Each structure stands twice: as C-alpha cells, then as structure tokens.
Amino acid sequence: MSARILDGSALAAEVRAEVARNVAAHRAAHGPIRLCAILAGSDQAGQLYARSQRKQCENVGIAYELIELPHDISEARLRDEIDRLNAAPDVTGIMLHLPLPPGIEPAAAQYRIDPYKDVEGVNPANIGLLFYGQPIIAPCTALAVNELLLRSGAALTGAHAVVVGQGRIVGKPITMFLLENQATVTACHAATRDLCSHTREADILVVAVGRPRTITARHVKAGAVVVDVGINSVVERDAGGSDVRRTVGDVDFTEVAPLASAITPVPGGVGPMTVAMLLRNTVEAARKQLHRRL
Ligand code: NAP
Question: Cα of 65 to ligand 1 centre, how many Å?
C-alpha cells in the first residue's frame, strides 16, 4: 500500500478562494475587513513572516496592518496597545507574533484580546467554548486538522482517533474537534505508557508533539489516516556529506507513508492549512462581530 498524500497546499488554495469570495461579500454589505498583527521586538524571522502574512491577506482582500513595537516594551504598554485595538471599530482581527520579548508572558497578552477579534482562537473564552461545540473563533491549527480530515473524506463517525500530544492550543482542541465529529478519541501525552499499544489501534492518528520523527512504522496500523502537525527544524547529513537544515514532522514520513492509507507531508500539510484558517477566522470574526453574544 502507498498512502494518498493529503495535500495541504492544494486544500489551502481552495479555502483561500472561498475566503476571497466571503471577504468581497462582507465588504459590499458591511465594509472592509482589517487584520492588525502586533510584532514586538522585531527580528528577521518575524519580519519575514509578517511580510508573507501581508501578502496572504491582501490576496484575499483583507487589509493588513503590522504594528511594530520596541523590543523593550513593557507588559503594561503592550496591554494598552491591545486595548486600543480591541476598542477600534475599524479593526476586525488582532494577532500577536510570537515569541514576545523576554519577560512578557504570551498567554497573558493573548488573553487580553477581545474573543471576537481573537483570530488565532487562543483566548480562554474561545478555547472554553470549544467544549460546548460552539466556539466564537476556534484555534487555527485544530481547525486546519479538522478541515484536512473533512475535505479529504476521512470517515470520522465511530472511528477510533488517537491524538498524540495534548498541548493547549493544538492537541487538546484537536481532541475536542474529533469528539464533535463523533470519533472515539484516545488522548496520549508524554506520560502515556506504551504509546505504541494506543497508536496501533488508531484509524485516525494525529500527532502534535514537537519531537522529530517520534512516530515510526511500529506505531501505525496498516490503512490508518495519519495527520502530522509537527514542525521541527533539524540539521542532517546529506548524501554528499554536507550538513543541511530540514523541516521535518513528528512522524517519520518515509517509514509511515507505505503503511498509511492517507498522510499529510511536512512541509505542505497542516502548515499551509493553518495559515488559510487564520484568513478564514478573520472573516468569521467580522461576521460574528455583527451579532455579539458575549
Ligand atoms: P506543546 O504545547 O509543547 O505540547 C506538546 C505535547 O506533546 C504535550 O501534551 C506533551 O505531553 C506531548 N509530548 C511530548 N513528548 C511526548 C512523547 N514522547 N510522547 C507523547 N507525547 C509527548 O506543543 P504544541 O504547541 O502543541 O506543538 C506541537 C507541535 O505542533 C510542534 O512541533 C509545533 O511546532 C507544531 N505546530 C504546528 C503548527 C502547524 O501549523 N502545522 C501550528 C502550531 C504548532 P505533556 O502534556 O504530558 O507534557
């Protein structure tokens, strides 16, 4: 058997086309949509990411503003900036580029963002409402995994899903989405005994651990659908003896792909879908702000 590749880049292009249509419809009826991204303590990687984000937003018709704050900004001053954006009627969405400068607790800053403008879906109100199956805006990566599974036609109802990694923003929300889709879910984490005995039972295996190639052939049942959320940068020796930097997932793709029925690659799987979900969440934020319930 050789797995079908779940092409996150192609599915993300579908989502972006839908988002562009929805942005145009929203603009015609209610005015423009605007995303403000805060970059505190700008570095080259942050600048690069922000540039790519601006392009992605503008391609679907979302106005993008990058707010650059100094590296020595205080937590109080950052809070003031978030409050200003929360109160601004022409700001649809707010996101925070991480990492923040040392000494500023990311969660505290993220929790300050109005849940209706929290396009990353990381405010406790949004995470909490997932438990009721009614988030205002859900976390982007969990949405990305959900969309990938649904759009690729994976049968979730009654399936046994195993989620390895129960991080607050990624693994746990994915577990909740799978439950919403009526899968029977096993939640694994660092203290799970005999991980293999759980993962080998999975019809759907989602891995969000942050450790390169943790899941190998021995962890996977033949025919499983495997979704690899991990993004790890590793340095490896190539055939010519030179060290090269590569991005790899939490799943050993070479070992697992021959066994699985479908698998996401890294890069090109969950990553591009997560970016597309941020765009979709921004439109969702605009729509939900018209009928606030909190
Ligand atoms: P996190 O908050 O640090 O959570 C990691 C989870 O993995 C924890 O639940 C931890 O268990 C568990 N874990 C660690 N070692 C394990 C092991 N050997 N066996 C089983 N479970 C283990 O990390 P995160 O923010 O969720 O991120 C996870 C991965 O997703 C990272 O590679 C990150 O780069 C990636 N990511 C990708 C995207 C994307 O768009 N593709 C977006 C966000 C994050 P405990 O709870 O017991 O400590």
Answer: 30
